[in-house]
Specification:
The protein is an alpha/beta fold and 237 residues long. It contains 7 helices and 8 strands, in the order E-H-E-H-E-H-E-H-E-H-H-E-H-E-E. It has helices at residues 12-23, 35-45, 59-71, 101-126, 144-147, 161-179, 206-217; strands at residues 3-6, 27-32, 49-53, 77-80, 133-137, 184-188, 228-230, 233-234. It is globular and about 50 Å long. The chain starts with a strand and ends with a strand.
Length: 237
């Protein structure tokens, strides 16, 4: 039995990833900052789902989640999915003129420090697994190659904090993968998916977006590690 934790799993890509992995036979801990929403999501997902409260910005919350999952038998797969974007005064994406150090810090606290906090806390459990896997949900906006290319759609995105945070996640992914060669640790780009993060303006469904997350969560021990992938294959850094 494969046991998986997905952060930010009470809705959107996290929820769909949980649904798919349960269908593949995983026991999935539905991580949610709000305990009630997490329980509701786990109830909807049915057998194979377990709710766990986890706020990736809070050490005590993460430590409590580790204790819960350790008591439940351990962990094989970690999906770092929780993420936020910086909003300006008009609730639009905060561009270069609007972004402040405080906004950057808020985004990095969840997207980068949260990923490190959760990964670090669960390393002891993952290292006990026979086939440990970590999937860091990144973004196509993390690709310096694409964002710097005037001809690529990513170049039109005005935000600063979110792309910078996801580029940092990519570097964290590479460094962790080198440090733990017995684990499969990768970053993935789900694509521009309709979720609350973008006000449901995305061009694809959560079913389509979850495809690469699910694929990388199910890697065998001989699968790739330290990579950055979308559904079509490796992406340029």
């Amino acid at each position: 039995m494969t046991t998986t934790l997905i952060t930010g799993a009470n809705k959107g890509l996290g929820y769909e990833t949980a649904r798919r992995l349960i269908a593949e036979g995983h026991t999935v801990y539905v991580g949610s900052r709000d305990a009630d929403r997490g329980r509701g999501a786990a109830e909807r997902l049915g057998d194979g789902a377990r709710a766990v409260q986890i706020d990736v910005t809070d050490d005590a919350s993460v430590a409590a989640a580790v204790s819960t999952i350790e008591a439940g038998g351990g962990l094989d797969v970690l999906v770092n999915n929780a993420g936020v974007e910086a909003r300006g005064p008009d609730n639009g994406v905060a561009g270069a003129a609007e972004v402040t150090a405080d906004l950057m810090r808020e985004v990095f606290e969840t997207n980068v420090f949260g990923t490190v906090r959760v990964t670090h806390a669960f390393l002891p459990l993952l290292r006990r697994s026979a086939s440990p896997v970590v999937v860091n949900v990144s973004s196509g906006l993390a690709s310096l190659t694409h964002v710097a290319d005037p001809g690529h759609p990513a170049a039109a995105y005005p935000g600063v904090a979110y792309p910078a945070s996801k580029a940092a996640v990519n570097m964290v992914t590479v460094q962790y993968a080198k440090a733990f060669p017995d684990m499969r640790i990768n970053a993935v780009e789900p694509g521009f998916t309709k979720t609350d993060l973008n006000g449901n303006t995305g061009t694809q469904t959560v079913e389509e977006g979850a495809e690469i997350i699910v694929r990388m969560a199910r890697l065998d021990p001989d699968g790739p590690s330290g990579g950055y992938f979308d559904v079509t294959g490796p992406l340029p850094w």
